[in-house]
């Protein structure tokens, strides 16, 4: 990938689920640095877009990663090219300790496909990086993951994705259902991860998006309706209302005690605690 070329490119993605045309020609790019936020109202197709990128749902169109057309590749081949996925449900094992959750995520050295730039890099798990970024995971190595706070679990989920030599992290709604105090922890975790690896972030909390995102891609009814710098979008109240149905974007961090006003979320849902 040369400077200026996108790291990931989705072109004209279509997905049909049970007779419904869910993605109707989604096209966008993800640059090789910073955080790109994938935004949109509830049910517009954000998670389906992520699944289409990873080959988890049948789709037409084209997906390229690092200049390689990966459209026809199976999911395991796509992820071993260097895409770490943190699903909405986090995918951690509650009964296993933090250390065991990390160990189980280790990708076999040499698992990278022929021709991948990874082959020239050391293939071992990057514990030092993960522990540097999230010292809490070292401190809590022996703690069962199910007893961590929601924010710590999210840190563990992101840590697992960073453990392997990934060049893109896809993080789906990491703050869904979390209390404002924990949202702040998660925002820190995403920002910290993005210092090392570019992130495609699906997120509904616009205060968090304002804080961490560089670029924004907005989806509505299965189509991309806006792409551009995140700040410029979030500063334009009329555009935010038109694209996302949000009355106003908070400029401050949500208050730890009272949480964000309901209209600070695109879906109007109240957050609960975790
Ligand atoms: N397995 C499925 N079966 C039936 N319908 C589905 C399935 N997966 C997704 N859909 C539908 O596709 C549409 C897009 O769903 P998707 O989860 O991608 O939206 P989203 O933007 O991520 O929503 P949310 O913000 O609520 O997570 C929704 O109408 C959803 O009901």
Describe the structure.
By secondary structure, the chain is α/β, with parallel strands linked by helices. The chain has a single domain (8-264), classed as Rossmann fold. It is 30% helix and 22% strand. It is built from ten helices and ten strands. It has helices at residues 46-53, 75-80, 98-105, 127-133, 135-139, 150-163, 180-194, 206-212, 230-234, 237-244; strands spanning 8-17, 20-30, 35-39, 60-65, 68-69, 83-86, 168-172, 199-202, 215-220, 223-229. Strands 6-7-8-3-9-10 form a six-stranded mixed sheet, sandwiched between helices. Strands 2-1-4-5 form a four-stranded antiparallel sheet, with helices on one face. Helix 6 (150-163) packs parallel to helix 7. The longest helix is centred in the C-terminal third of the chain and has 15 residues, at 180-194. The chain is globular and about 45 Å long. 45% of the residues are buried. Mean pLDDT is 85; it is low at 115-121 and 254-274. The structure holds adenosine-5'-triphosphate (ATP). Adenosine-5'-triphosphate (ATP) is lined by residues 17-18, 22, 40, 42-48. Residues 249-274 are annotated as: Disordered. This is Branched-chain amino acid transport system ATP-binding protein. Keywords: Amino-acid transport, ATP-binding, Nucleotide-binding, Transport. Residues 8-246 form the ABC transporter domain. GO terms for molecular function: ATP binding; ATP hydrolysis activity; branched-chain amino acid transmembrane transporter activity.
């Amino acid at each position: 990938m040369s400077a200026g070329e996108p790291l990931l490119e989705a072109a004209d993605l279509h997905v049909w689920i049970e007779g419904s045309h869910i993605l109707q020609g989604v096209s966008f790019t993800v640059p090789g640095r910073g955080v790109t936020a994938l935004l949109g109202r509830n049910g517009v197709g954000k998670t389906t877009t992520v699944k289409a990128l990873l080959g988890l749902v049948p789709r037409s169109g084209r997906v390229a990663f690092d200049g390689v057309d990966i459209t026809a590749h199976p999911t395991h081949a796509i992820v071993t090219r260097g895409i770490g996925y943190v699903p909405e449900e986090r995918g951690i094992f509650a009964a296993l300790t933090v250390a065991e959750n990390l160990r189980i995520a280790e990708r076999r050295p040499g698992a990278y496909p022929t021709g991948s730039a990874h082959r020239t890099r050391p293939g071992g798990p990057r514990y030092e990086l993960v522990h540097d970024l999230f010292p809490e995971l070292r401190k809590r190595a022996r703690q069962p993951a199910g007893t961590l706070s929601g924010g710590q679990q999210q840190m563990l989920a992101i840590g697992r994705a960073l453990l392997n030599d990934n060049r893109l992290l896809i993080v789906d709604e990491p703050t869904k259902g979390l209390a404002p105090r924990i949202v702040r922890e998660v925002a820190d975790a995403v920002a910290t991860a993005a210092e090392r690896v570019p992130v495609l972030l699906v997120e509904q909390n616009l205060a968090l998006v304002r804080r961490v995102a560089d670029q924004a891609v907005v989806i509505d009814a299965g189509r991309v309706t806006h792409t551009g710098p995140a700040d410029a979008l979030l500063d334009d109240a009329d555009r935010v209302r038109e694209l996302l149905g949000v009355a106003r974007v908070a400029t401050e961090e949500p208050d730890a005690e009272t949480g964000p006003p309901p209209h600070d979320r695109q879906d109007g849902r109240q957050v609960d605690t975790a």
